[in-house]
Specification:
This protein is an all-alpha fold. 77% of the residues lie in helices and 0% in strands. It has one domain. Helix 1 packs antiparallel against helix 2. It is elongated.
Length: 91
């Protein structure tokens, strides 16, 4: 695959990730368990969904273009970051 064909697909993945994060943050804001806990739970669900979609579509992890596996890693990193802030700050 040439880089010219790969770039629009990666751009689509970045836009999809940003839109999903906006939606997750909005839903976490309305969560009854607090923002950090709600966001962590929603990120876990996003990790599972992205991994399942990547497996069903048989996408290659660490490919030259971004795909659902890269989204899974980004959600996982954000989930650990949110979870770390959740335990670091006493409520």
């Amino acid at each position: 695959m040439t880089p010219y064909l790969a770039e629009p697909r990666s751009r689509q993945v970045l836009i999809r990730f940003c839109l999903r994060m906006v939606i997750l943050v909005i839903f976490a804001g309305f969560g009854g368990a607090g923002f950090a806990r709600s966001l962590a739970a929603l990120l876990w669900m996003s990790i599972i969904v992205s991994a399942l979609i990547g497996a069903v579509k048989r996408e290659v992890p660490f490919d030259t273009v971004l795909n659902h596996w890269d989204e899974t890693v980004a959600y996982l990193a954000l989930c650990y970051l949110v979870s770390d802030f959740n335990t670091a700050v006493p409520v």
